[in-house]
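Checklist before submission:
- one chain only
- standard amino acids only
- sequence pasted in full

Submission:
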Amino acid sequence: MPYLEFTQRSARSTTLQTPLERARSILAAQPFSRLLGTEMTEYGEAGVELRLALTDVLRQQHGFAHGGVLAYLADNALTFAGGFAMGGGVLTADLKLNYVRPAVGQVLIARATAMTSGRTQAVCRGEVIVLNEGVEKVCLIAQGMVLRAAQTPSGQAPNPQEHSA
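Returned file contents:
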């Protein structure tokens, strides 16, 4: 359940970072994403795209990408899409995954968009695609709900290091 404290307002107010650069810095602040080597390649109104090289350590015993890796990518992509739509400060509240084919290839690509959003929640949809020899194939379809993170008594969103998934 990634916690995102990005706000569109803060990204616009700084001349040093575009929304994509700010999203990349948030992704880089996630130790698990750094461990895997996940990259943010798109972030905006059109949606979110994350990429991850499919290395041997990310495969299960049959040589396919491990389902947990696919779920991680879907979760993070949906949360970033919801975070963009809601202006940040969000957490995943619900995640539905349909694995539609084994992921065999060189690169995993997660794409997501917010289908609807309001003050407190966004419903997002996405997919994880495997890129194999230049051909993209959908291997997972996801839908989830992203909620505004609870406020602390001080009125601030919780510190990501203090929040447990």
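Reviewer check: Residues 7-14, 158-165 have pLDDT under 50 and may be disordered.
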